[in-house]
Hints:
Elements: E1 26-30, H1 31-48, E2 51-52, E3 54-55, H2 65-70, E4 75-78, H3 81-91, E5 94-98, H4 107-113, E6 116-119, H5 122-137, E7 143-147, E8 186-188, H6 197-211, E9 220-222, H7 236-250, E10 253-256, H8 260-263, E11 267-279, E12 281-286, H9 290-293, H10 296-299, E13 309-310, E14 328-333, E15 342-348, E16 357-361, E17 381-385, E18 391-395, H11 399-404
Parallel strand pairs: 1-17, 2-10, 3-4, 4-5, 5-6, 6-7, 7-8, 8-9, 9-10, 12-14
Antiparallel strand pairs: 1-11, 11-12, 11-16, 13-15, 14-15, 17-18
Helix pairs in contact: 1-7, 3-4, 4-5, 6-7
Amino acid sequence: MTVADLALPAVTPVESIDWAAIPSPAFVLDESRLRRNLSLIDHVQRESGAQIIVAFKGFSMWSAFPILREYGITGATASSLHEAMLASEEMKGEVHVYAPAYSAEEFPRILELADHLVFNSFSQWERFRPQVVAARAAGKTVHVGIRVNPEYAEVETDLYNPAGPFSRLGVTRREFREDLLGGVDGLHFHTLCEKDSDTLERTLEVIERNFGEFLPRMSWVNFGGGHLMTREGYDIPRLIRVVRAFREKWGVHVILEPGSAFGWQTGWLVSSVLDVVHNVKDAALLDVSVSAHMPDVLEMPYRPRILGAGDPPELDHHRETDQGTAGHPYLIGGTTCLAGDVMGEYVFGRALEVGDRVVFDDMIHYTMVKTTFFNGVKHPDIGILHLDGSYERVKSFSYEEFKAKLS
Length: 407
């Protein structure tokens, strides 16, 4: 069974969307696609017995949180004080917190907010344990975990590999302190990045080999994120089987905290052509920025899809666009002064003109969370395309927000 085998809600056909009616630029979340993902996530949660929470580092569009709650999403994982505050204020469920290090100034407030609190090292746990003990004595319920590093990962991109050589994330078996486990009731690991459940299964074999002796003392294990269960072709039955087997073998509560799986293929970045210039090749300048609004394109790097456009001849030997006709090639660039603010070359079915919409696909997860105000260029709106076809602008950005970022 994969995504295609489940009876999931229908989604709005892309060809039925009136892109010209959506003010540009804008990140547009499609409610129908979000509900489709949530239906699948809810299925996995019910069948596996795991608790699935949303990782804010990948998806934190809080105007959509009421929809998440409809599908049994009972909490969120935060990587900072501000994300923990957002989880408390807007997600209105369990607050799970993990950060590579906590500061003395912020920790008391984090402890106040957190239901689950994971430490990256035993030195941090030693430093802040007295505050945790005092809070528990005063009636605060907080589950404490240690992040472990199994020194095993199948992540191809070094930038996103948390278990690579000399990683600062998590405690290796060599550095693990059994003598400091008093007050710790859980373990956490995160080694996946948009991986299938077979990778998780192999990872758990390493976790059991390296840390299995400590699992009987734990009440929960957090499998971290990177479980891209909403991607077409993901092996969902294996995920359910693997989680069930681990729960039953060790008698622990299992937590999954994906970010991409929630926002995967749920929306777009709508932009407009501002100008077309020519320097040997034609270049279309858009009202969005690659570096400011789509930084993963440069960091990962990867080549996003543009609706209605195809690859240039050197990338696509068919020399055809998605419509199957010979097209017009353009370099696609942003409006900042950064010379490298360029998406790449795409082929369109017709010549582009000022005002034409250019729509980037799959721009919700790990995109909005990374945007900046670089160059002060207009920041895209945030909107929701509802089930009835109506468009709601839920956020627009002002000069005051740009100004407030600095002083």
